[in-house]
Amino acid sequence: MNNHDLKLYFIMGSANVHKRPPLEVLEEALQSGITMFQFREKGPDALTGQAYEIFAQSCQKLCKQYHIPFIVNDDIELALKLGADGIHIGQDDFPVAVIREKIGDMLLGVSVHTKDEVHTALQYAADYVGIGPIFATTSKSDAKPPSGTEFLQQVRSEHPDLPIVAIGGIDESNAQLVFKAGAHGIAVISAICESVNIKDTVLTLTSIQPS
Ligand SMILES: Cc1ncc(COP(=O)(O)OP(=O)(O)O)c(N)n1
Ligand SMILES: Cc1ncsc1CCOP(=O)(O)O
Ligand SMILES: [Mg+2]
């Protein structure tokens, strides 16, 4: 993984897409230039069992076709079974040490909200950290209150080389603030899933420069 892979990190599960088949949305996002993808199938109506696995495999296949890293959210067993490129975990999932032990050198992304969490993520060689929600989000029911960009700025100044992706309520109107604060990239759900023109949205989001 290089820092550019974080530039526009698309996250999707079937619950995030309403008017079109999710795989169609993913393929359009891939064609338009997303740089990383996270399979995040959760929530009350999430697919389970065989349907869950088949959907994950279909997403992975599309990502392979476009040479884009396929990251699994939360589910280590699925990530290992499919041979995903990586896994993303949060502080309420599993201890980072346990995950690193299980996944070997697969990419590891960790959500962080405090300096201690950053320290632990670094100790176990997290490949990147996710910081957020920066702004209000409707895509995660148990999200913490929006943090704004202050913590992100602090982490960037203390860890100049740490790959950071910002998440939560990010869209064309505010992405520049986040890059300015020091993020290498933005992770989005609704900005793409609810876009009326995915190509335009992706082009706009990928062309934003820090200043
Ligand atoms: C890139 C990225 N950053 C943060 C998160 C949030 O992870 P987590 O806190 O574990 O919450 P869930 O996504 O599992 O609900 C993420 N998924 N991706
Ligand atoms: C998974 C996650 N973690 C923190 S905020 C969030 C949801 C981001 O979705 P959106 O881009 O629609 O605000
Ligand atoms: Mg999680």
From TrEMBL:
List of residues binding 2-[(2R,5Z)-2-carboxy-4-methylthiazol-5(2H)-ylidene]ethyl phosphate: T137, T138, S139, G169, I189, S190
Keywords associated with the record: Magnesium, Metal-binding, Thiamine biosynthesis, Transferase
Binding residue positions for 4-amino-2-methyl-5-(diphosphooxymethyl)pyrimidine: Q38, F39, R40, E41, K42, N73, S111, K140
Pfam short name (any one): TMP-TENI
Domain Thiamine phosphate synthase/TenI as annotated: residue spans: 8-192
Gene Ontology MF terms in the entry: thiamine-phosphate diphosphorylase activity
Enzyme class: transferase
Protein name listed in UniProt: Thiamine-phosphate synthase
Natural source organism: Lysinibacillus parviboronicapiens
Gene: thiE
